[in-house]
């Protein structure tokens, strides 16, 4: 009998008689003979995860095993008398030992009795829940191993419809199952029933405040979207009394966009901090036109660590465990704690625009407020080195005697997450504003105001998404078909006019123009192939003053680095680096400084050709999805009566014959 893992839920077997099947034969009913699992699924299995089918559990664990370098086999499957499966155990392919053979030349033992495994069980809600997990192996496993395991040669039917992409498109292909539940505490059960909501509870921040009709609107919203979009994903969190607490949802287009623009994301919690009627949290990225694009949406009960952890885990699970390089958040201790727990490998930055918006509220009551505000702003925006920032900050604190101000103390403690001088080594893709005039917009700004109700927002959600993707498609067309008047004779300006989108090229041209305000480029040292320069530039605020910027150039590998840090901030080279390249006779910008995320010719799978009735007929994914939606509508109409059913079957037969005839004529 299997030992009981400490990381397990209690198991209550049914009283009915059952039988057990050992070994890999239990999988023959659905394991295919061709195809290789594509994509990756680094999310480890955990007690409490739920899946729609037995096959989904196998597919999930097999994907995890492929990434981590081991194979999977079915150790046990339990059946009831009705031959219905109700429990299973998947193990590492090195589990157990082979039976001794009496052959003259028995095969060598390859198994090690490895304990790594998962156990899962069919629950009352007809979902399969992982009830026991052991992740440790007693042998070496390596993700880079070239060993080809038998279990990796199938794509389970549990993946209802894998997202078929063109061969040259780099995108995750593993389908994440709609009902995967990750409990942030791992010590209590979540029994989710998407069709039942209760909205009365006395505990603060422990449930969503829903008005009459909101629960039904939310349920209809999810079911309608899933009906027409098979890749729509949602998950809900109920509190201990069964009341709806948190919700997360995403679409296939969100995951596709994340594969292109997921290096830097912003978590927009403005609806929580400004007390909107809809407690919406939007996880967003920025596309190659500088437009905000949604990557995930959630409704949460309150700004608590628990809710943020649940939301981030749900989002990360949907994104198949791939964390972003950088996360931008509002000033929130709860969110910072949640990110440290769920996304420890991602750099997190606090939105500078959010901080500046809070200045009147936090400092407005101080004596000499305007003078303090000016000193505060100068320390942030006019410091190019850490020493300058620290000196200016200390001078402000001492001169105005505000060392004990709690908000300023908190800001200074967090300065490495928001002060521009500390963020020069963090890639931000232009998503952190460094000027007072810039504003960070949410994808849903135009459709969501303080008093917008949940029902109104849900009704306008699809229209909002259409406008977001239409705006992106139109910007694509404009960038492809427009030409710019060059502002210099530098060849690299012409070079990037052919590569960058209009929005990014216009920002780059500001740096090209800025080269003319750089007074001199002086070499100060040389160490082998590494040369250091000082570029002197006129101050923007005071043309009578100049500032020095240190730029290093490695001529052997064409690497250039400026102390201003603009490349990491915006994603293109600054005027100081351009001056150094120009002085060293570089006609073109080195390719490593031309990011693919800004290119006008980047082809995204989620953007349609809007000249074809909103369907890109060249893309098989779009053809499939559109036909699927039409077929679902037809099925819904055909099932309403026996007459409609017969008529629909006949009509479908005629259509199939016509399609086949069309194929024959084409041949």
From TrEMBL:
Annotated compartments: Nucleus
SWIM-type domain boundaries: 549-585
Predominant subcellular localization, coarse grouping: nucleus
Keyword Zinc-finger found: yes
Any one GO molecular function term: zinc ion binding
Pfam families assigned to the protein according to its UniProt record, in alphabetical order: FAR1 (PF03101), MULE (PF10551)
Keywords: Metal-binding, Nucleus, Zinc, Zinc-finger
Sequence similarity: Belongs to the FHY3/FAR1 family.
Protein purpose: Putative transcription activator involved in regulating light control of development.
Protein's recorded name: Protein FAR1-RELATED SEQUENCE
Organism of derivation: Nicotiana sylvestris (Wood tobacco)
Lineage: Eukaryota, Viridiplantae, Streptophyta, Embryophyta, Tracheophyta
């Amino acid at each position: 009998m299997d030992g009981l893992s400490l990381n397990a839920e209690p198991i209550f077997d049914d009283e009915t008689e059952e039988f057990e099947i050992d070994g890999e034969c239990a999988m023959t009913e659905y394991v295919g003979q061709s195809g290789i699992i594509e994509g990756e699924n680094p999310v480890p299995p955990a007690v409490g995860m739920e899946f729609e089918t037995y096959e989904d559990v196998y597919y999930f664990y097999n994907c995890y095993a492929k990434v981590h370098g081991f194979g999977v086999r079915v150790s046990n499957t339990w059946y009831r008398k009705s031959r219905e499966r109700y429990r299973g155990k998947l193990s590492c392919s090195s589990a157990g030992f082979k039976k001794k053979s009496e052959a003259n030349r028995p095969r060598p033992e390859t198994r090690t009795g490895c304990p790594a495994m998962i156990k899962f069980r069919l629950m009352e809600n007809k979902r399969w829940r992982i009830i026991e997990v052991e992740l440790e192996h007693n042998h070496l496993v390596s993700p880079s191993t070239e060993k080809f395991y038998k279990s990796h040669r199938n794509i389970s039917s549990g993946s209802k419809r894998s997202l078929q992409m063109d061969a040259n498109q780099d995108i995750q292909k593993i389908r994440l199952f709609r009902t995967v539940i990750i409990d942030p505490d791992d010590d209590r059960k979540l029994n989710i029933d998407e069709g039942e909501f209760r909205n009365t509870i006395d505990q603060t921040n422990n449930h969503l405040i829903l008005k009459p009709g909101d629960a039904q609107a939310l349920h209809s919203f999810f079911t309608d979207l899933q009906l027409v979009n098979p890749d729509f994903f949602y998950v809900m969190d109920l509190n201990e009394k069964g009341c709806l607490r948190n919700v997360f949802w995403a679409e296939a287009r969100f995951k596709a966009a994340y594969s292109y623009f997921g290096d830097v994301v912003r978590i927009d919690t403005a609806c929580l901090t400004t007390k909107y009627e809809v407690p919406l949290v939007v996880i967003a990225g920025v596309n190659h036109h500088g437009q905000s694009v949604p990557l995930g949406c959630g409704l949460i009960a309150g700004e608590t660590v628990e809710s943020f952890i649940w939301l981030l885990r749900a989002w990360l699970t949907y994104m198949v465990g791939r964390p972003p390089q950088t996360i931008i958040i509002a000033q929130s201790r709860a969110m910072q704690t949640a990110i440290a727990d769920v996304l420890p490998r991602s750099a997190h930055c606090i939105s500078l625009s959010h901080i500046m918006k809070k200045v009147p509220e936090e400092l407005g009551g101080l004596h000499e407020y305007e003078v303090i505000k000016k000193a505060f702003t100068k320390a942030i925006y006019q410091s190019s080195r850490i020493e300058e920032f620290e000196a200016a900050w200390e001078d402000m604190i001492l001169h105005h005697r505000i060392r004990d101000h709690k908000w300023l103390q908190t800001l200074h403690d967090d300065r490495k997450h928001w002060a521009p001088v500390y963020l020069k080594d963090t890639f931000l893709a232009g998503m952190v504003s460094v000027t007072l005039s810039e504003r960070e917009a949410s994808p849903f700004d135009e459709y969501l105001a303080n008093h917008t109700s949940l029902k109104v927002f849900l009704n306008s959600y699809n229209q909002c998404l259409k406008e977001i993707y239409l705006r992106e498609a139109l910007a694509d067309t404009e960038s492809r078909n427009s030409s710019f008047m060059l502002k210099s004779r530098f060849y690299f300006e012409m070079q990037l006019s052919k590569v960058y989108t209009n929005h990014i090229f216009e920002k780059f041209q500001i740096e090209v123009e800025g080269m003319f305000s750089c007074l001199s480029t002086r070499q100060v040292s040389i160490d082998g192939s590494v040369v250091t320069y000082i570029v002197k530039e006129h101050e923007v605020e005071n043309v009578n003053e100049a500032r020095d910027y240190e730029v290093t150039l490695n001529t052997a590998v064409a690497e250039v680095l400026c102390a201003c840090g603009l490349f990491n901030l915006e994603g293109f080279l600054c005027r100081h680096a351009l001056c150094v390249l120009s002085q060293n006779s570089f006609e073109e910008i080195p390719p490593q400084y031309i990011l693919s995320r800004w290119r006008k010719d980047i082809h995204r799978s989620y953007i349609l050709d809007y000249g074809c009735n909103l369907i890109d007929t060249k893309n098989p994914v779009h053809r499939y999805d559109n036909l699927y939606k039409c077929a679902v509508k037809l099925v819904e109409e055909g099932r309403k009566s026996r007459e409609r059913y017969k008529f629909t079957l006949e009509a479908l037969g005629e259509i199939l014959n016509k399609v086949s005839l069309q194929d024959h004529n084409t041949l």
